[in-house]
Design brief:
The protein is an alpha+beta fold. The strands form 3 sheets. A 4-stranded antiparallel β-sheet has the order 5-6-7-8, with helices on one face. It has a two-stranded antiparallel sheet with strand order 1-2. Strand 6 and strand 7 form a beta hairpin. The radius of gyration is 24 Å and the shape is elongated.
Length: 161
């Protein structure tokens, strides 16, 4: 058997310490992952709700047209301001006249982001009810625990975490 030098022992000890630190950080991350997802979904729901309320308020102020225009500036465009049109239903809440992928398109229109949160895809479900009202209920699922639901008949946004 050969002898190990002091440098080899230092390298081995450093490797063990780094391995322990990485393991501890991994367990801390996994422990807080649910909290991170909940906070991210809350933030996204707030962005969605803010846009919905802004569109509805504009609809109330401008004569209740089918399309509401809101001036928006986008980051990275040199503060360029443009009028963005939002289609609203008879109740004044954001909705789309199309049925194909309406909830997915509504998400992108309201949030300005793709259907993913924290690099995890969001599943979109349109909940069909027995009501005769021309409105839709969209549910955006991150997983079984976290989802955002939007009811275009009332403008109500539910954030389940």
């Amino acid at each position: 058997m050969g002898r190990y030098s002091v440098a080899q022992y230092k390298i081995l000890l450093s490797f063990i310490i780094i391995s322990i630190l990485v393991t501890v950080l991994w367990f801390k991350f996994k422990k807080n992952e649910s909290n991170i997802l909940a906070i991210t979904m809350e933030s996204t729901a707030a962005v969605f709700a803010n846009k919905v309320m802004m569109v509805h308020a504009q609809w109330l102020m401008t004569g209740k047209d089918d399309i509401v225009y809101i001036k928006e500036s986008h980051l990275g465009t040199g503060a360029k301001v443009e009028n963005i049109g939002y289609r609203v239903n008879e109740f004044g809440w954001p909705d789309l006249s199309i049925d194909h992928d309406a909830c997915a398109r509504l998400w992108q229109k309201m949030t300005g982001i793709e259907l993913e949160v924290v690099n995890q895809p969001i599943a979109v479900i349109e909940v069909k009810g027995t009501q005769k009202v021309e409105a839709r209920v969209c549910r955006y699922h991150l997983n079984a625990k976290h989802y955002i639901e939007y009811n275009s008949a009332s403008g109500k946004i539910t954030n389940k975490n």
